[in-house]
Design goal:
The complex is a heterodimer of chains A (about 350) and B (about 350). By secondary structure, chain A is mainly beta. Chain A has helices at about 1-20, 280, and strands spanning about 35-40, 55-60, 65-70, 75-80, 85-90, 100-105, 110-115, 120-125, 130-135, 160-165, 175, 180-185, 195-200, 210-215, 225, 230-235, 240-245, 255, 265-270, 285-290, 295-300, 310-320, 320-325, 330-340. Chain A contains 2 helices and 24 strands. In chain A, β20 and β21 (about 295-300) form a beta hairpin. Chain A is globular. Chain B is about 5% helix and about 40% strand. The longest helix of chain B has 15 residues, at about 1-15.
Chain lengths: ~350, ~350
């Protein structure tokens, strides 16, 4: 709650500045439409509980669904593959204050990224604490005013509102960091700093970032970064050298790479918070691509109604035909069953 | 501004911590159980401020966890929660929580067990040292939690009500007042007569002495680098003769005083001493950590074993997140000389270390 005071104004500012006219319409032409249906009442809440902002969503190898939410406190819930509530993880954990991402690694460990405590935490498959990277400033330092102006210099082991986490096949850890740094950091599997791309300063050159908001690593060890305020996705090699950028997919909110030998990339041009006039007509869709960038199709649209999206914040795409999306607004998690792409659709 | 203040404080801390000692010391072989405590599913350790064992081997952990909360008042803001005190048995099995929903558990700093198995809880933000009896009941409280906190943190003029004692009225910086008003206390120890010594601390730069009933006797020290002055007092221990060992991380030394605060000597070859533990028995030795700050896992972090005359017996460990590595050690329990409990802030864990027997 102490951090709540510090965070609420920061978010309001982030919302008002990052979204004012910044959202871009995707320019990629002739993208086939992927029909889909949303599974009704997918998540079954425990009695008396409701979702808050469904900021993070991820599945493990058993199909269990982990939802990292902003409610009265930030909480992490586990559901089975049918959406039945299993348990809460991390109740009262010091590194939970303002959810941003949950991901599950190939060994089914559960990782959370909390931008209110500047921590990235690894939990075992059954929810026991294993490791934390980053550091929450102690409360004894007091409540301090919201930061304006230039970011402080980035430090190896200190995040500034980190956003996402991923791993390469060797188990190295990659963190996108974040709202007040603008970098991607690589650690070894034990959390030792190896390299970074970008810095605290925002920039628009390849290898620079302006709000790196989502991150995933593919089977080749390449790092995919949703570079949100730059309205692009960047692909980096395993040493964080820029390989390629995608500037025609709208605003890079969040990225997902599917599991298995043939991987696909999903990229969300989420509609901006605030739902300003005209934004629904030009944003809200999710793209599906091959790893080489070949476009396969797109699906979804901005809407407050079930089946549409209200600011998709994270996607799970372990099974590339069953996408689970967590939405900021509408406090909702949906499971989407994708069908085969139809003929080329109109570009929205 | 928040970043600025944070960074300034980090810079200040960095200036004191994480500096490698200059003299090479022999490595002490050791092993670690990095997961010695069994927690209920709904309990998570956060940053471990303190860990200590009592005479039965029960383990007490004072941890920064949960959600430090500032609630909104009419004209002031009020701090609540953020730390919890847990008890485990000698096998690491969870026994109970002490002081649940306590008024004064804000920023866990240290827990120590005295010879009668009383549990002493030091809270850096509540500015208090709270003695709990073996049943967990508060029986002696030194200091008082500030009624409210300043928003922003540096508002106002540092009055006792807002941010702790700060500068004593008309006194030297860091000297505090001749009272039990603390400013970010860090540790507590006792002599054989039961006198109480408080390391005070991160805000003040003094050691305060009380009798066993909590009557203030005297305090000594102020901010500085001369003998008898402290950058900060990060830990404290008292030997069987009543000598007082005060860790002064910012000045990279342990200062040794007699029982009345007269400076005797300084131990200077152990990095920037943070956590301190003095073994019991006839041949007492000191363990002291050169704790790495949370922003640096690439240097420092080792723990030294030192004779009371300052001779380094050996060292072990280094900064890191693996077992047998350390992330900002804040507490060492050395009830058994070669079986240590080590509490880490940045790694949010307790390790149980087994050291090779001395030659």
């Amino acid at each position: 709650m102490k951090r709540l005071l510090a965070c609420v104004p920061a978010v309001l500012i982030a919302l008002s500045s990052a979204h004012a006219g910044a959202q871009q319409k995707a320019t990629v032409p002739n993208v086939p439409e992927i029909p889909y249906s949303s599974v009704p009442n997918f998540l079954k809440m425990p009695p008396g509980e409701t979702l808050g902002e469904a900021i993070g969503v991820a599945t493990n190898s058993k199909g269990h669904v982990f939802v990292y939410i902003r409610s009265a406190t930030t909480r992490l819930w586990e559901f089975d593959k049918n959406g039945t509530f299993v348990k809460e993880i991390g109740k009262g954990y010091y590194g939970f204050e303002f959810a941003h991402s949950v991901r599950v690694d190939p060994q089914d460990n559960i990782w959370t990224v909390d931008e209110g405590t500047n921590t990235v935490t690894k939990f075992s498959p059954d929810g026991k604490f294993l490791m934390v990277i980053g550091h929450r400033p102690p409360a004894v330092d007091g409540v301090v005013a919201t930061v304006f102006g230039a970011n402080a210099p980035a430090q190896k082991y200190i995040f500034c509102r980190p956003t996402d986490v991923g791993w390469d096949p060797q188990g190295n850890i990659f963190v996108s960091d974040g709202y007040c740094n603008n970098r991607v950091v690589k650690y070894d599997r034990d959390g030792k700093f190896l390299a970074q791309s970008g810095s605290e300063k925002a920039g628009s050159e390849p290898g620079q970032y302006n709000l790196p908001h989502g991150l995933q690593v593919d089977g080749h060890g390449h790092v995919w970064v949703a570079d949100r305020t730059n309205n692009r996705y960047q692909e980096l090699d395993n040493d964080l050298k820029p390989v390629k950028q995608y500037t025609n997919l709208g605003t890079g909110w969040t990225v997902c790479v599917s599991a298995g030998p043939h991987q696909y990339v999903f990229a969300s041009n989420s509609n901006p918070n605030g739902n300003g006039p005209g934004t629904w007509a030009s944003t809200g869709e999710i793209y599906k691509m091959e790893l080489d960038g070949t476009m396969i199709g797109k699906f979804g649209h901005a809407s407050k109604e079930f089946g549409g999206f209200q600011v998709v914040h994270m996607m799970d795409c372990r099974n590339p035909n069953e996408i689970i999306v967590g939405e900021i607004e509408s406090w909702r998690v949906q499971k989407l069953m994708l069908q085969q792409p139809t003929k080329t659709g109109s570009s929205r | 501004m928040k970043r600025l203040i944070t960074c300034l404080s980090i810079a200040l801390v960095a200036a004191g911590f994480g500096v490698s000692a200059q003299n090479p010391a022999p490595d002490i072989a050791f092993d670690s159980n990095s997961n010695p405590l069994t927690l209920p599913d709904d309990v998570y350790l956060g940053e471990v401020g303190g860990v200590a064992a009592n005479s039965k081997g029960d383990i007490f952990v004072y941890t920064r966890t949960g959600h430090p909360t500032i609630s909104i008042g009419t004209s002031r803001a009020f701090a609540h929660g953020g730390s919890r005190l847990f008890q485990f048995d000698r096998n690491g099995k969870f026994v109970r929580e002490l002081g649940k929903d306590s008024y004064g558990m804000l920023v866990a700093q240290q827990v120590r067990i005295d010879a009668q198995d009383n549990v002493w809880v030091v809270d850096q933000m509540a500015n208090s040292v709270n003695k709990l009896d073996a049943a967990g009941r508060p029986v002696l409280l030194l200091g008082r939690k500030p009624e409210s906190i300043n928003v922003p943190a540096n508002a106002g003029r540092g009055g006792a009500e807002g941010g702790g004692a700060g500068r004593g009225r008309g006194g030297l910086p860091g000297a505090g007042t001749q009272s039990d008003v603390f400013n970010r206390p860090t540790d507590v120890a006792w002599d054989a007569a039961g006198n109480i010594f408080v390391a005070d601390g991160m805000g003040n730069s003094r050691v305060a002495k009380f009798d066993s009933k909590g009557v203030f006797i005297k305090s000594w020290g102020s901010r500085g680098s001369e003998p008898g002055m402290f950058a900060n007092v990060t830990g404290i221990a008292v030997d069987a003769q009543g000598n007082v060992y005060a860790a002064d991380a910012g000045n990279k030394r342990i200062q040794v005083f007699d029982n009345n605060g007269t400076f005797k000597t300084a131990i200077t070859n152990v990095g920037a001493p943070a956590a301190l533990c003095l073994t019991s028995g006839p041949n007492q030795v000191l363990y002291v950590s050169n704790s790495n700050p949370p922003e640096d896992f690439d240097s420092g972090g080792e723990i030294y074993k030192v004779k009371l005359d300052g001779t380094v017996i050996g060292k072990f460990g280094a900064a890191g997140k693996r077992p047998k590595q350390f992330g900002t050690v804040n507490a060492i329990d050395c009830r058994a000389e070669n079986t240590l409990l080590v509490g880490e802030l940045a790694n949010m864990r307790v390790q149980k270390l087994t050291l090779a027997s001395p030659r």
